[in-house]
Every structure is written in C-alpha cells, then in structure tokens.
Amino acid sequence: MIVNGQHNYCVMLFLSRITAKNIANRKTERININVPIYKDKNTMMPYGEDFSEYEDNKVMKKHLKPGHIYMDSPTFGVGCCALQVTFQAADIKEATYLYDSLIPLTPIMLALTAAAPIYRGFLSDTDCRWCSLSQSCDDRTMQEQGLEPLTNGNILVKKTRFDSVGSYLSMSDQFYNDYDYSYDAEQYELLKAEGVDEMMSRFVAQLLVRDPITLYKEKIDQDIINDTDHIQTIIASNWHSIKLKLPDEKSGWKVEFRTMEVQLTDFENAAFVVFMLLLTRTIVTFKLNLLIPITKVDENFLPAQKPDAINKEKFHFRKDVQKESSELTQDIYSLMTLNEIMNGKDDFPGLIPLIHKYLDYIDYDFSKRPKIMQYLKYISDKAAGKIMTMAQWTRQFVTNHEEYKNDSFVSDRITYDFIMECEKIVNNEEGLPQPFIKC
After folding, report:
1. Which of 237, 368, 381, 424 has the fewest CB atoms nearer than 10 Å to its CB?
2. In terms of Cα–Cα distance, which of 408, 311, 352, 346 is closest to 105?
3. Rounded Cα distance, 234 and 213, in Å
4. For residue 88, is pLDDT > 90?
5. Which has the closest alpha carbon to 338: 83, 98, 109?
6. Angle CA(228)–CA(229)–CA(235) in degrees, nearest 5?
7. C-alpha span between 69 and 80 (Å, rounded)
8. Which residues cross the membrane (predicted)?
9. DSSP assignment of 252-298, as one string?
10. Measured in Å, how far apart are the chain's first and last C-alpha atoms?
11. Residue 317 near residue 291 (C-beta atoms within 8 A)
C-alpha cells in the first residue's frame, strides 16, 4: 500500500480563473459563500457588512446572510490547505472495502484536525474549512438546487461538487445507503446493461450528473477504448470527502481520504498520515466494520465543524466495529466523543488501541516503534483534549492579543503577529509544538 500526503495546491491550480468563471457561468450567478461569524461580546449584532464601496454591492447584499461573513471567490474555499492521503489497494474489492470503511471517519478526522477559524479577517463560528469549500465549488443552477421548478429534463442535485459522499459502494453495504442521492438514470441503466453491478453503476451515474467543469481542446477527441481522460476529468472535478481513483499505467485502484486539514508542523502532518495508514491496515487485517447509515455520517459533519468540537461535541459511531451486522437498526451506533472513538471506553475498544493490537499482531519491530508511538500518543492526547487543535490555538492567540477588541475582527497587526508566531513554531519545534499543549 502506498500513502501520499498532499496539499490542496493542486486544486488551487486546477481551479484557475477559467475554472472559476466556468462555475459562475454554469451557476448563472457569481459564487457566494457565507460562513457564520463568531459572536463575541462586542460583535455588532445583528451583524452585517457595508458593501457601498463596491460597484456591484446589490449582488453582494442579495447573497449576504445576516450574521455571516460573506465571500464571493473560490479562493476563499480552495485556498484553504488540506492534508489528503491516498492509499493504493490490492484490487477493486479492497478499494471499495476501504472506500466504504473510511467514509464514517471523514467528519471525525475533520474535527480532529480543525485548523480554519478565520475568514476575510473575522473570527468565524466554525473551526474548519469544509463549509466554505463546499459553497465555493457550488455550480448548481437554481433548478438543480430546488429553488425553481425542474424543466427540460433537469434533475435535483442535492450536494455541491465539494461535499460528503452520497453512498457506500459495495453491494453488501447497500442497506446503509439511506440517502436518496442524485444520479443520471440513463447512464445508470446503460452501465447496468453492460454488466456493471448496481452500486458501482449508481456511483458512476452520480458523477455523471455534473457537467465537466474544464475540458482541454487537445483532449476532446479520445480513443475511448484505451484512453480514460474523459472519465478522469469527471472524477477529478467531483471533490468528495472520499475519492475512488481509477487504475493507470503506474498503479492500480486507489482511495483518497480528503477531509483532514493541514497542520502547522511536519511532525503533526506526519502523525496524521501515519495514523491513517496504520488504521487502513488495521481495518483490512481485522476486517473491521465501521459502517453507519450514510445520513448519520452527513449529520456528523455539522458538529465536526463547530468550535472546540473535540471537547464539546458527540458523533454517531458504530458501537461494535468487530462484528458484522446484516440489519440496519439504531442499535448498531451511538453518540460518542472523539476521545471515546479514538481511545475507547468500557464497551468500545477505540481506534488507537486497535492499531496497537495490529502492530502486535504483525510483530512489528520494536526498534522501529518509538516514532510511531510518538505519533499515536499525539493523536491520542489530542482526541482527549490535552493538546489544542490548530483552530483552538488560533482562537486563543487572537482573543488574547492586546489589539483584539472582542469584536470578532482580526486586524492586520494581529494577523502579522500570528504569522510570525507560526513561523517561530515551525522553525524551532522538531516535534509536537509546545504552545499547543494545554497547561
């Protein structure tokens, strides 16, 4: 299995001016992003912004939601960095198993890596980039959003291009798909007629709901028997929380985990990459079952983005990950804290103890374990609330700054001092950043 940590710079390049223009043109209006503002004691409420200095302020006023920070460029979404990890599977069977198994973890890891509480110079009431990302890549028309009656064969598209996945892939997992996601019925029937199984047919058909957002003129004419550029273009412009990647001349089926936020230091990023790698091996080796209804995964994205989710929120998670179930009932999952999910509790083993069990099972060389143990302890302590997330530390830095006036505004001076402090940490810390450790 190959793991590759990567940042969102490739997405930034892909979402060039032309791509952004294509999104706006298809949507037939400019991109609009609204992120809830953090309500401090001196924040003017109801919060609103004065757009009088802008020529097209009527358009801005139309889209601005009260109590929200308004943005109108994809850069405010895709400009946020991510830590995306790609795993190579042995074959398509293992790839779909990994794909399904990792879906319930997407909001969990988003909360654990939370690192984006500031937008356009204001503290927001969210710790993560996900809500701005999803809105920044929304090219749906009014009809597709359900805001106008459907005509000319258009269908309702419930999610944006950058959103959580709509379904599990394996046929054996289909009863967890309790979400009525959109897909191209004609393409679905065509795939079924060609012998593709039902779930994979629906998966591809839901990708084909969307138009290609970019297409290079030199690649319009393709050898459809041997070239996969057309379908790769579709897959590449559907930025879901998990992505199934097709085989190519260099590698086989791959699964990309896409929700984690990039951390400040190499140590932290390495810890999360290693954790995810070990967790996938643990899942495959012990045949763990993490699945819960797909709608509960979507529900988990809401608390995952809230401030201090590690200490304040609970998430739907499977109660017995070592037992298969053929029935979909509320008994298979319960609400757990991130600490309970990662470190366990009386009736749940915890993901990190399961990883330790896996390392013992494969008789992993003890001489090579110290660094891995450091990484796992870091993840464990973070889930337990002993170490601040980047978002928590950022909020603390801003609110404790002498120039902060408890009004949600992050001034240029605060921003400069924050960047200098980040640079100092990156240059001076070889391991866990000490300022993140709670006293």
Report:
1. 368
2. 352
3. 8
4. yes
5. 109
6. 90
7. 16
8. none
9. --EEEE--PBPPSSHHHHHHHHHHHHHHHHHHHHHT------HHHHH
10. 39
11. no
User: CA 45, CA 43: separation in Å to the nearest integer?
Assistant: 6
Q: For residue 155, which of 190, 180, 137 has the smallest C-alpha distance?
A: 180
- In the chain, the amino acid numbered 311 is N
What values do phi and psi take at 333, rounded to 5?
A: -140, 160
Residues 88, 2: Cα–Cα separation, whole Å = 5
- Rounded to whole angstroms, how far apart are CA atoms 37 and 46? 11
DSSP conformational letter for 360: H
pLDDT in tens, 289-340: 999 999 999 999 999 999 999 999 999 999 999 877 656 666 889 999 999 9
Per the DSSP assignment, residues forming a β-bridge with 261 are 82
Is residue 407 within 8 Å of residue 40, measured between CB atoms?
A: yes
Q: In the predicted model, what is the mean pLDDT of residues 245-257?
A: 89
pLDDT in tens, 36-72: 999 999 998 877 777 777 766 777 878 888 899 999 8
Torsions phi, psi of 221, nearest 5?
A: -90, 115
How would you list the strands of the sheet with 254-257, edge to edge? 3-6, 84-88, 254-257, 242-245
Distances from the Cα of 49 to the Cα of 53, 117, 355, 413, angstroms: 11, 19, 49, 21
d(CA 210, CA 153): 14
As a whole number of angstroms, the distance between CA 160 and CA 74 comes to 13
Q: What is the domain partition of the chain in residue ranges?
A: 261-431
pLDDT digits (tens, 9 = 90+) for 380-407: 999 999 999 999 999 999 999 999 999 9
- Specify the long-range contacts of residues 11-18, CB closer than 8 Å, at least 24 apart: 11/78, 11/82, 11/239, 12/75, 12/78, 12/79, 14/214, 14/236, 15/74, 15/78, 15/137, 18/214
Query: Within 146-286, where are the H helices?
Result: 185-193, 198-207, 229-236, 266-286
User: 94 φ, ψ to 5°?
Assistant: -70, -35
Helix (H, G, I), strand (E, B) or coil at 63: helix
Please state at what angle helix 412-428 crosses helix 390-400, rounded to 10 degrees: 130
pTM of the model: 0.92
Burial class (CB in 10 A: 0-12, 13-18, 19+), 225: exposed
